[in-house]
Amino acid sequence: MQKQKINLLGFGKLFGPTYKRHLERQNELLEKKRPCGWFFGYHPSELNYVFDIVNIFPEQYSAYCASRGDSPRMIDDYYSMGYGPFLCDYFKCSVAAIDKPELATKPLMPRPDFTVDHHSICFGHRDMAEIHARMYGVKRYSLAFPYIRKEDIGSFDDITKITEWMDKDLLEYTIQVLRDFVTFLEEVTGEDFDDDKFKSVMKVSEETSRYFIEIFKLFMSKPTPGSQIDLANYPFIGFFVHGSKYGLDYVKNCYELIKERVNKKEGVVPEEKFRLMTHGIMPWHTLSLYNYLEESGATFPLNPYAHCSAVLHDSTKPFESLARRVSTFCNVEHELMLDALIKKAKDADLDGAILFENTGCRIVSGVMRPIKKALYEELGIPSLIVEAPQCDLRAMPPERMKTQFDAFIESLR
Amino acid sequence: MYFCGLDIGSCMSKIVLIDENEDIVCYRSSKSGFEIRKTISNLYESVLKDQNIRKDQVKYIVATGYGRNVALAFFADDKVTEITCHAKGVHKIFPKCHTVIDIGGQDSKAIRLDIDGRVSTFVMNDKCAAGSGRFLEVMSNAIGVSVDDLGLLSMKSKNKATISSTCTVFAETEVISMIASEVKREDIIAGIHDAIATKVSALTRSTGIEDEVVMTGGVAKNIGVVKSLEEKIGHVIYVPPEPLITGALGAALIAKDRYESKICDAET
Amino acid sequence: MIEEFYDSGRIREYIQRGKRIIGTFCSYTPEEIIHAAGLVPVRLFGETVDIMNAYSYIPNWLCYYSKRTFEEGLIGNYDFLDGFVFLTSDDTNQLMYSIWKKNIKVEYSYMLQFPFSVDGTSKNFFTKVLEKFKRSLEDHYSVDITDKDLKDSIEVYNRYRSLLKELYKYRFYTPPKISGSDVLKINLAGYSMLKEEFNDKIEEYINKLSDEEGLPDKPRLYVTGIPIYDPLVFEMIESCGFTIVFDDLCNGSRNFDFEINETISNPIEAIAEGYLLKPTCGTCSRQKSLAIDERLSYINERLKTLNPDGIVIIGDKGCELCAFSQVELRKELAKIKPVLYLEIDFPLAKEQHRTRIEAFLESLS
């Protein structure tokens, strides 16, 4: 089979300067001795821009360690601390970076003044924040967001994540949790909450979410306009720097690129043979696995993981808007999530799905078999589930994975 | 007066006979095999016969290892786990030892000793085979080299291969594909040793490492693994002349202690 | 005597009497409300060891409890259930709720929000959550749950908790009057009984126990770790020469070492507060402290009074909570007493575990 040439959208090229701006902000704030927080599964990221907090994301750091090839030796160190195999790879790397900095990818994360977690992406975040806080002897703040059941919201729009309704008590509670957190940040910084600044940050965030959603829709065009490599930095913006000007600029520029390509009806490869969905945390150690498939003509118009944080805002109701983001893909019961997914799968006109079971991640791994079943039963779409911890390629060697990919593609013909 | 220690492991059974001065009179080992009872009696009787020792001269027998319960049922006077026995045996040979690393057929363990040679803490491997003698056996089969030759062969390696898989079965596949792509045999072997050392060093670290470090068990005969482990933990590792029998030696020493305290109790 | 508690026919008997059975999974489940609705809450154990079907639905590396209960559900061993109630207490519970709902056919299923933080905001919310739960039961089962019903159930459960507390005391005697395995069996039996019936039985048992002679004196253990629904584990440990004098498992002391304030006028609020303040498993904590420190201080207090010879932490690689906390727990507890970390999986590799337990015993002498 002839390998096809991949024509990247170029999101990756845009990311370099964006990340540079992010680091510049961090360094500036560090120099000013602003408080530094380590954030686990963080979604009200806007508040960091309101309070000028140094925002560090151990998970992003761990993904970086994996892409640099340092994660295996860090994970070996993690095991030597006495931990077991079935925990999040992100935790494995970030704990090891504290335990044995000499083994870890540089630059290291700056020391935290506090940690923050919530469990509306996964419960593990709570534990991670706690253990890291304990290792450093610093405060931990936990946002006890609720889990979303069907009876709480009815249903949610598969693209905008706007819910049919939201239980009044649940919404009030979530807003209160956020307000309590603001009080904590006021204590940490010794400064009062700046309402105007909050509104303007939320305005930026709203615009960002609009671009996010447009890009999401355009990605499902036929032929698929972009590669998964284009999306690799996307979760960083969505999860961690929502509300920043550089985040907004990034998605705005991405939007221009993808719009242009879709208008020209160009695809990421010259001849699209299969349209696949992919879900699960990306295998950061070997992102070329996506290319392996794309080169064979199998493209990915749909990646719910990368778009998981895209929730349409209404910045005129800033607290409510933040609160409504608890309805992420990961924080709802399967029935809701599967309904939304089936709708999207139909829109994207899929031939199959490649699902990454991230060993140690219960939320992602636990939903793969139900997704596989639902796609097949509702739409007749076959799926391949591959076990792929996101930072440790040793648990599933890429060669072995490619064999499975090949067999799956052969079965689609 | 003689005392006997018997270590019935998953692969090998070992016997040690000591006299009242705690000197080793004789030791021997054989494959544990399917009929453990037979293995035990054969070992015991052949040792007595060779040394011209009567059964009534052996005052106390302590069994250890996975077969200790079987041995206690029909033969031994007492049973003690191999962890305590290894500690005891190693302390006899290396009185300054504080850390024992034992890699057996299916088990690997790290034991911390206090100043008197008593076990202060220990850890054993989980059910994964990757840190055990079994791993070496599987790999030596794949390469077609005898397990006994692995150590020396690996010392020739100039360009150590990396075994990236942590699972024994995946690692075997990896080794086979390395053979297919003509990676040098010694380099593959060195990579295998590294893989096992990584796993075991992780285990060792969870008890903490304090000098002197002594390695026992059949795998300690493999110089390649010992060297690789030294590198990983950053401590010199001492290996007793017969690393296979420290458990049985410990059992024999405990047999002597128990016998003496029994006599003592009887007198008072 | 112990056998008398253990009666698998009892659930069928309740059904024959027209009762409906609700399965529960977590010691944070406010069973009082279910009880007040005239239903029988039953904690599920997952007795099956061979997992043949569950892995087509869930990863094989989840905790033993989730795998075993789900397998039993799949093969029809829980056909006595009219419904089940989950809590959002961790990722596994969250996903298992969806998976149970989809694959195990029952009349009623409910997911309760777990109160992760102990503070005013969460207490208000948890009270509302429990009110909704009450309404949901009322609607589904066409019953009225009055405040009187709730208060009666609170009384039954408070008595249940204080009796178990009493029973545990007989373990601390020198020598102990009852083994850890027997206490576990009684505990387990209580989970599938109406508490008012169980209370009478256990009261009678305790009265007899006070006259009994003690057990042989053996080294004493404090056990902590994952929930143990299989008496085999305790039997294995005790048969190696130990007595387990205390356990703070989810189905041990953490199940009863709290009470619900009967003087609070709104019974739902009282229940919310009671469960919120119950000894934590490490999921729930005050905002200013770490759950693991709260857990440690609970254990330390008990270690001080019990002064056991050693501590066994029972772990399960698949249990997220345990897998995260065990390293710190081991480190901290080892500063106080010798610690053995025993990682289990089923079918139980008894020989391997016995070696570790016996070696631990040898190291204590």
TrEMBL record, chain A:
Gene3D superfamilies, per the entry: 3.40.50.11900
InterPro entries assigned: FldB/FldC_alpha/beta
Regions that span the bilayer: none
Domain of life: Archaea
A Pfam family matched in the record: HGD-D
Family: Belongs to the FldB/FldC dehydratase alpha/beta subunit family.
PANTHER family for the chain: 2-HYDROXYGLUTARYL-COA DEHYDRATASE, D-COMPONENT-RELATED (PTHR30548), DEHYDRATASE SUBUNIT MJ0007-RELATED (PTHR30548:SF1)
Name of the featured protein: 2-hydroxyacyl-CoA dehydratase
Automatic annotation (TrEMBL), chain B:
Name of this chain's protein: 2-hydroxyglutaryl-CoA dehydratase
CDD domains the UniProt entry points to: ASKHA_NBD_BcrAD_BadFG_HgdC_HadI (cd24036)
Record-annotated ATPase BadF/BadG/BcrA/BcrD type domain positions: 5-255
Listed transmembrane segments: none
SUPFAM superfamilies in the cross-refs: Actin-like ATPase domain
Organism: Methanoliparum thermophilum
Entry keywords, A to Z: Iron, Iron-sulfur, Metal-binding
Record NCBIfam families: CoA_E_activ
Self-association state and partner proteins as the record states: Homodimer.
Recorded GO MF terms: iron-sulfur cluster binding; metal ion binding
Cofactor needs: [4Fe-4S] cluster
InterPro entries per record: ATPase_BadF (IPR002731), ATPase_NBD (IPR043129), CoA_E_activase_dom (IPR008275), Dehydratase_Activator_Redct (IPR051805)
Automatic annotation (TrEMBL), chain C:
Gene3D superfamilies per record: 1.20.1270.370, 3.40.50.11890, 3.40.50.11900
Pfam families linked: HGD-D (PF06050)
Protein family per UniProt: Belongs to the FldB/FldC dehydratase alpha/beta subunit family.
The protein, known as: 2-hydroxyacyl-CoA dehydratase
Phylogenetic lineage: Archaea, Methanobacteriati, Methanobacteriota, Candidatus Methanoliparia, Candidatus Methanoliparales
